[in-house]
Amino acid sequence: MSMIRDLRAAVRPSLRKSRAPYSPYDATRDPGVGTAVVDCAVYRDGHRVESESTLTPHEAMLRVRRDGGFAWIGLHEPTEAEFAGIAAEFGLHPLAVEDAVHAHQRPKLERYDDTLFTVFKTIHYVEHDELTATSEVVESGEVMCFTGRDFFITVRHGGQGSLRALRHRLQDDAELLAKGPSAVLHAVADHVVDGYLAVADALQDDIDEVEIDVFSAHRKGSSRSADAGRIYQLKREILEFKRAVTPLLRPMQLLSERPMRLIDPDIQKYFRNVADHLARVQEQVVGFDELLNSILQANLAQATVAQNEDMRKITSWAAIIAVPTAICGVYGMNFDYMPELHWKYGYPMVLAGIIGACFTIHRTLKRNGWL
Are 11 and 191 in contact (CB under 8 A)? Predict the structure, then answer.
């Protein structure tokens, strides 16, 4: 359809390959607003209906029922009391409301009567000067979406900011917004998955850095145990990333393949693109985990080899020292009658024998790679 051919360009920002921290949102709750409602607006024919004062969710819904269009309400970490009135106004299911208020939910897609409830986990890359065994690499948040015939509600948790930038981009594309709440749901899903792609690129740089350090000559002042700590920390952070990506695969497949009354058929086609990108990220995350397993095993193997080399060196020097110890031990015994005890050339001959034996043992061990 010509009206939505530029959908991807409208809702997806360009990805940068730099390692700058990626944050798809630009702010948290407006400090001047003392409510969980960050923004509330009515959209009709793809355009935002301006009002002289900020609309309440109740006023927005009255306008929608009177004049048509749909309401888009954005909330940030609402309390049960703050969300109760909105839930009653829009007829939201109590189970979905409970999940939205208390957060810490698994990514999912659920249908309650004429409302779709979708949970996304947002991932933010935490920039750091140097990766250590305690570095925080990724930070997660949550976005819950309620999609109805004439409303779209987002409930965000975490300090990653608002969807204000996304809202502004969508408002510049009237043809897209005219498709209704399902177009906004696609935009949010695409926005979240774009964040995954950027984080995956940044994590690839961190893994490459650790891999180079493990397989190159050891840096001065570093230790193999420090490398193991960094690898383990990366595995923990990638596990958090995996918990956000993997459960979302099934909901994106459902949105892209199964016909739904609340999803515009023209918009549904573009969920396939989101699902493809999500599958790509999931493959990257699995690959990261397997690669880190291999790097960790290589690091442990190198540590074992280094310990074996140290033991061989210790054993070699002990063998060399054993020769003079044995000879001197013999001549240190207090007997009156010992062979060549009072011989004129006895001392230099014994000394020469000790030096010759030690030299021969040292050369043999060095030739065999023990020293």
Answer: yes
pLDDT at 12: 43
Query: Directed axis angle between helix 249-257 and helix 181-215, to 10°?
Result: 140
Mark out the alpha helices in 71-180 (DSSP H runs). Answer: 80-90, 94-102, 164-171, 174-177
**Side chain identity at 81, as an amino acid letter?**
A
Sheet holding 115-125, edge to edge: 47-49, 37-44, 70-76, 151-157, 138-147, 115-125, 108-112
Query: How many Å apart are CA 132 and CA 74, to the nearest integer?
Result: 37
pLDDT digits (tens, 9 = 90+) for 45-92: 989 987 656 788 888 889 999 989 999 999 999 999 889 989 999 999
Rounded to an integer, what distance in angstroms lies between the CA atom of residue 330 and that of residue 276?
81
Helices (H), the chain: 7-11, 57-67, 80-90, 94-102, 164-171, 174-177, 181-215, 224-245, 249-257, 265-331, 346-367
Who contacts 11 (Cβ-Cβ below 8 Å, separation ≥6)? 166, 169, 170, 173, 176, 186, 187, 190, 191
The single-letter DSSP state of residue 71 is E
| Amino acid identity at 292 | L
**DSSP class of residue 347?**
H
pTM for this one?
Answer: 0.74
Look up tokens 């981009």; give the residue: 169
Question: Residue holding tokens 């940068």?
Answer: 16
- The total of other beta-carbon atoms located within 10 Å of residue 125's CB is 24
Instruction: Count the Cβ atoms, other than its own, within 10 Å of residue 266.
Output: 15
* Distance of alpha carbon 290 from alpha carbon 184, whole angstroms: 36
**19, 127 contact by CB (below 8 A):** yes
Say how far apart CA 113 and CA 94 lie, in whole Å: 12
Q: Between β-strands 47-49 and 115-125, what pairing exists: parallel, antiparallel or unpaired?
A: unpaired
Distance of alpha carbon 302 from alpha carbon 257, whole angstroms: 49
Candidates 121, 365, 132; CA nearest to 233 is 132
